[in-house]
Amino acid sequence: MTNIIISDWVFAVEQTQKKANYYRVISISAPEDSALSMGKEVVRLPDAREVLYLKFDDVTDELQGFALTLNGIVLATKDDCRRALQFLSQGGNIIVHCRAGVSRSTAIVLGFLLSLHADYNIAIDELFTIRACADPNTYILRLMTEILGRDEEFTLILEAIRRKQKASN
User: Fold this and answer.
1) Contact 23/93 with Cβ under 8 angstroms?
2) Which of 15, 16, 123, 129 has the greatest number of CB atoms lying within 10 Å of its CB?
3) CA separation, residue 46 to residues 25, 41, 77, 96, 110 (Å)
4) Can you give the CATH number for the domain in which 81 is found?
5) Does the predicted TM-score (pTM) go above 0.70?
6) pLDDT digits (tens, 9 = 90+) for 1-40
């Protein structure tokens, strides 16, 4: 059984301190030396049961080309996504966090949910149940759909996300 919480980094730190050795955590932050890092994204979670640290910037599909022209931008990789999928598939009580808990973390969790559900609408509904303010990073989501062999559904998934967001507003 997998119980997933998506949050910002502050909530993740607080929860792992309240329940030491309880949560497994995927901690997503910008690399310390990244051009996009605010210098405040270094998160340490000594009280977590287990932590997967991923370090990449919050660069969306739309900004990927522009970002590559900047020095020091670190993009998510398929290896990052595969490591996250493997970590999530091991189950347990899991917190997935990034800076705000809106973009990178929700894309990672949606990728995992897509691995569980053939119907992407079910995966999207489950994501928005977990995190109502979800706005999955499109670059990471594209990597996830490629890994899962669902890249032909990428545009349909994006459209379904936008419909869900519009209905929530």
Assistant:
1) yes
2) 16
3) 11, 16, 26, 15, 26
4) 3.90.190.10
5) yes
6) 789 999 999 999 999 999 999 999 999 998 764 444 455 5
